[in-house]
Amino acid sequence: MYQVDLNCDLGESFGRYMLGEQKEILKYVTSANIACGFHAGDPRVMRETVRLAVDHNVKIGAHPGLPDLNGFGRREMKITPQEAYDMVIYQIGALQGFLTACQTSMQHVKPHGALYNMAAQDEKLAEAIAQAVYDISADLILFGLAGSELTKAGERIGLQTVHEVFADRTYQADGSLTSRSQADAMIVDKEQSAAQVIKMVTEGKVLTQQGIEVPVKAHSICIHGDGEHALDFAKYLKEQLLQNKIKVAAMS
């Protein structure tokens, strides 16, 4: 039987701005990536999301991003590897405080948005992020885009490294995600999404926008919690995975 983790980016509300249906989504996912205040989230939201994840027995990870609330961390910034290291250390520490207060532990770290995509291609940024995670704890799991510089950096330094794929994004021939600036970046049809995911898990391949199949590792599947149909996607995707005899379970 195949096995895969199903993760979702959560805790991305801020102040009076509410985003996503995380109480319901947590019924279907096995890992939660919780925003740490830079691209989204605030202390109250972090605390509440940690508690919800604990109540649903969902594994918790830090979701550090660029300091860009207005752009939701999805706009690239020119940063040095040292700045990337410091940002990741700081944000992991912020979430760890709430985990300690709730007497639970952190499973993983997954960079967010532009930071994630930059590290997927920039070896030095990837190494800095992997080093930050390793310096906090060598027992943490690093999530990165399948086959990217980030997963390579995690593996080199000795971290357990998860190759992540996306349920609601299209792919390019080099294995990268289609830029959100393009109209065909997002998959809005849940049946198309499920078919792509099942192919990635069972065949280790993804059909790109160029019409060619490229190899891909699929240890964990991401659903974006801010997506318009995120809850529907999560429910349907889990049903389809189980129907295709794919076990859904957290990495640890």
UniProtKB/TrEMBL annotation:
Q: Which InterPro entries match?
A: Glyco_hydro/deAcase_b/a-brl, LamB/YcsF/PxpA-like
What GO molecular functions are on record for this protein?
A: 5-oxoprolinase (ATP-hydrolyzing) activity; ATP binding
Alphabetized UniProt keyword annotations: ATP-binding, Hydrolase, Nucleotide-binding
Q: What is this protein called?
A: 5-oxoprolinase subunit A
Reported function: Catalyzes the cleavage of 5-oxoproline to form L-glutamate coupled to the hydrolysis of ATP to ADP and inorganic phosphate.
Catalytic activity of the protein: 5-oxo-L-proline + ATP + 2 H2O = L-glutamate + ADP + phosphate + H(+)
Q: Name one GO biological process term.
A: carbohydrate metabolic process
